[in-house]
Design a protein that fits this description.
With about 450 residues, the chain is an alpha/beta fold. The protein is about 30% helix and about 25% strand. The protein has three domains: about 5-145 and about 265-325, FAD/NAD(P)-binding domain; about 155-260, FAD/NAD(P)-binding domain (3-Layer(bba) Sandwich), CATH 3.50.50.60; about 340-455, Enolase-like, domain 1. The chain binds NADPH dihydro-nicotinamide-adenine-dinucleotide phosphate (NDP).
């Protein structure tokens, strides 16, 4: 046994930290974990989980409305924000409790306070002032919303605040074109708020396949979201009736609530990384090697604080790989390629592998693209105009599938399965030899035809 208080001290009880702490404790290691907020981290407390419940909330509203075409009579439908908000918080608290229990039941000590690094082996617990030492330290503190420093920025809220809004805003202005901006625009429009989404670029979801970006632009409009492009906010002014936001092009937008969804940054500002000899990049992300080891050999980092791929399941896998490497004598580097993910617009996006633009950059003409767009049968009777878009990208003569991009109902569910096929390096012939399940949306993915060459638009 080492002379340290703990074999492992984990800073941050989010997805990556809890998984790592639990696995180490199950191996008989002496584990300490510190968390300044509720255990569970961004995903459980102020991200994926409560967000998905809001998406379901908005989807129920749409389902009620659209059920008329299926013979239902629905009169006097109302929505109560307070009920949904409070029910979500109850569930968040339940899940957070499970996270604490998982750690404690496995013998880890959970400190419910902020921790900072003092040196390479010492952690200070900020509320109690106690210091603890550890042979190995894992930084898993995640990230937090970042906003540009414009005049009046204190009047804006960020995604953390959304889940606690006292009232549902009648009008909401969302700044940004990324995951969070697109998802919350869809949620609040679905709940009945008048939403304007203002983005500094020309197409939503930077980094995604160009056709997906166009589809998402179209579906936001179909959901009644007023999307404005190529504008950045310069000032937020409070008025008697709400806020007025001024933009770079001279335009002004009046609203009841301004949500800044302009990205997230790793939470390393006051963590003591320098004192511990841990290097960070210009965004504050902890620099790590493929085994998640920082520049200080006994300190590791996983999850959003490393700003690799900022998704919960990735943090969990990085944590599990860290345990293999450090405690099982099995150096393991988590493979960050071909990770399936979803954007919970309404309907959602599912994506795995590379975009067409990236495929053409890497492989030039040695790429074949298959697409389809159709109105799912549910939407015909319901009168919904939403469509399903599917795109499969293959490479080489063998036509290995290197990218699948879906926009439409159930895309998030479908992409998880498709992710297995991409990870297994299956070919278009494998897809085609798979018999369809009828009648489903997913069956279209095994019957796709090549997009005619003259229609190919390559946009990166
Ligand atoms: P994103 O990076 O996805 O989007 C940030 C947006 O803000 C971009 O549109 C960006 O523009 C814009 N922006 C940045 N700086 C400024 C500025 N100074 N003025 C105006 N606009 C600005 O970040 P999010 O916060 O939406 O999400 C963070 C991460 O969290 C995601 O990347 C994802 O990894 C994760 N996440 C995953 C979800 C999921 O899996 N469903 C859901 C939510 C979050 P530009 O595009 O031009 O850079």
């Amino acid at each position: 046994m080492s002379d340290y208080d703990y074999d492992l001290f984990v800073i941050g009880a989010g997805s990556g930290g809890v998984r790592s702490g639990r696995l180490a404790a199950q191996l008989g290691k002496r584990v300490g974990v510190a968390e300044e907020s509720l255990p569970g981290g961004t995903c459980v407390v102020r991200g994926c989980v409560p967000k998905k419940y809001l998406v379901y909330g908005a989807d129920f509203g749409e389902a009620i409305e659209k059920s008329k075409g299926f013979g239902w009579s629905v009169e006097n439908v109302t929505f109560d924000w307070g009920t949904l908000r409070d029910n979500i918080q109850t569930e968040v608290n339940r899940l957070s409790g499970i996270y604490s229990t998982i750690l404690e039941k496995n013998g880890a000590d959970l400190f419910r306070e902020r921790a900072e690094l003092v040196d390479a082996h010492t952690i200070r617990l900020c509320k109690s002032g106690v210091t603890k030492t550890a042979e190995t330290i894992l930084i898993a503190v995640g990230g937090s919303p970042w906003s540009p420093n414009i005049k009046g920025i204190e009047h804006a809220i960020v995604s953390d605040d959304i889940f606690h809004l006292p009232e549902q805003p009648k009008r909401m202005l969302i700044i940004g074109g990324g995951y969070i901006a697109c998802e919350f625009a869809g949620v609040f429009a679905g709940l009945g708020t008048d939403v304007i989404q203002a983005y500094r670029g020309g197409r939503l979801l930077n980094g995604f396949d160009a056709e997906v970006r166009d589809e998402v632009g179209a579906l936001q409009k179909r959901n009644g979201i007023d999307t404005r492009f190529n504008i950045s906010p310069t000032e937020i002014r409070k008025t008697d009736g709400g806020f007025i936001v001024a933009f770079s092009d001279g335009s002004k937008i009046g609203t009841d609530c301004v949500l800044m969804a302009t990205g997230r940054r790793p939470k390393t500002d006051t963590l003591g990384v320098k004192a511990a000899g841990v290097d960070v990049d210009s965004n504050g992300a902890v620099k790590v090697d493929k085994f998640s080891r920082t520049t200080q050999p006994n300190i590791y980092a996983v999850g959003d604080v490393t700003n690799r791929i900022n998704l919960t399941p990735v943090a969990i896998r990085e944590g599990a790989a860290f345990i293999e490497t450090v405690y099982k004598d099995n150096p393991t580097a988590f493979d960050h390629d071909n990770i399936a993910s979803a954007v919970f617009t309404r309907p959602p996006v599912g994506t795995c592998g590379i975009s067409e633009g990236e495929a053409r950059k890497r492989y030039g003409d040695d790429v074949t693209v298959y697409t389809t767009s159709f109105r799912p049968m549910k939407n015909v009777l319901s009168g919904s105009e939403h469509r399903c878009f599917m795109k499969v990208i293959t490479q080489g003569k063998k036509e290995i599938v290197i990218g699948v991009h879906l926009v439409g109902d159930d895309s998030a569910e479908m992409i998880q399965m498709v992710g297995i096929a991409i990870k297994a390096k299956l070919t278009k012939a494998d897809f085609d030899s798979t018999c369809a399940v009828h009648p489903t949306i997913a069956e279209e993915i095994v019957t796709l035809k090549p997009r005619e060459l003259n229609k190919t638009t390559v946009v990166t």
